[in-house]
Amino acid sequence: MLVGEREYDAPYDQIAIDNVSAARTAVRHLTGLGHRRIAFLGARRESARQPAHLRLRGWREELGATGLPCDDSLVAATDGYGRIDGAAAMNALLDRGERPDAVFAYNDLIAIGAMRALTDRGLRVPDDVAVVGFDDIEEGRFSTIALTTVSPDKQAIARLAVERVVARLAGAPDLVPERIQPGYTLVARESTARRPG
Description:
The protein is an alpha/beta fold. The protein has a domain at about 20-150: 3-Layer(aba) Sandwich (Rossmann fold). The protein has six helices and nine strands. A six-stranded mixed sheet has the order 4-3-5-6-7-9, sandwiched between helices. Strands 1-2-8 form a three-stranded parallel sheet. The longest helix is centred in the C-terminal third of the chain and has 16 residues, at about 155-170. The radius of gyration is 18 Å and the shape is elongated.
């Protein structure tokens, strides 16, 4: 039993949300608000089965579906997945003159770091640059600008994992390994909502 976002080519059950679809939902939210220069922060150089690659693929697919260019100058790699990495990636984009009107970050920590960098540069979130993260961590809900995020159904992930383990321990004869994809929701908060006044 594997629980996690990385895809494995192995004869085991795996429980993970559909990262490509979830990323497309996040980008669709931004394009629906009128954003056209949407950056992706958190690209990685590892295997294409890594969740960062799957989310980047979702970014590309959704931009393509809406007729927007997949501008690779708006893709920023990070060395890690923390706040400092998000701030560094955002600053790198701005330093080379690539100012997006929205950001989709690999995770919430990168998104929070990006928001700090934007604020330090005198840009307003979401008025100048909207930001969407991924994971729905508590810090994102309570940051000064509450973060819009993709929220995996963590209760479903836990329930499905337990059900699958129980079924395997019971020796269910027809149980073949499969990839099970729990749901997710996009939680819209202040980082993408234009504030009144």
